[in-house]
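Worked problem 6 (solution included).
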Amino acid sequence: MAADPVLKNVRPGTTIINYMSTVYFLAVPASLAFAAGVWRMTWDMIKNLNRSWFLLLGSVFVVGFAMIYMALKIPYYSLVKAFNGLALVVPFSIMCAWGIDAVDGWLREKGFIFWRSLLYGWFGTFILAILSSFLVR
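Solution. The predicted structure is:
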């Protein structure tokens, strides 16, 4: 590990793995926000018959189904790769943003200023941990 040229310029005691392990714990609220965003988007699509949300949810379903189908139909280890899911980055981001907006709206409605500041503090920490886990050099 000491001979690795990528980790040569990193401070002693600080590696990329230290930052990445922090992101796993910070991703739990983001996953809950994503689930809330999916629920909110699905409810809005059903209630208002919104075609744009149908397109986003449909693209997530189609790409996910295609990846599962490819993995089952042609069972090679290297078939399904992470870049096959890059088409889902924009829909996943929109769903997560809708979930965070739903939580923020609920906290604003109830008047919980401390919890709103904690929400945005978590979000900033989450983004900085992701950036620092990939930009440490």
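Discussion: Residues 16-135 form one domain.
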